[in-house]
Amino acid sequence: MPLVRNIILIAALLLVLAGWYAFRQNQRKRLQEKQVLLEQQQRAEQLLVQYMTHLQEKNQLIESISAELNQVEPPISPNPSIEGLLNRVILTDADWQQFKSLFEDVHPGFFSTLRNRHPDLTRAEVRLLALLKLRIDTGQMSRMLGISPESIHKTKYRMLKKLGDNAQSTLVALLANGEVRS
Known about the structure:
Elements: H1 2-71, H2 80-86, H3 93-106, H4 110-117, H5 123-133, H6 138-145, H7 149-163, H8 167-177
Helix pairs in contact: 1-3, 6-7, 7-8
């Protein structure tokens, strides 16, 4: 009888130890997964910042070229390729797709949630919301999008009208934490 009791106690102790070991391994695995996700999120944020910096540098270069061309005496007739460069929208469709991909890495589900809850928003309004989410000032937005600051204000005004009665709370919630309320 004491032998059976000792075997049962040892088996129970081994089960407890095995359960504790499995629990600890599961905790370690979850911690590692969280660390990997955090590293991916940080990398995505870095890529988005680099991309935004690249766009701003392109804008500054185009502005400086434009300023230099305007100061040339006697004025030169614009070369069609230079004129095309100066009139080019900086955030082209290809640029937008790359930006959107990087943005989605940092703010997953932002665009799909926005489209599901507010399908009547235009492409310009969606772009504006993404740039507002990144807290980019109006001047930078206008240079990035190749439009005037007044156009930014008009787009924002129209978007707020479209969002209706709870537009301000929807906009604040969206820009604060990514949730889009209907």
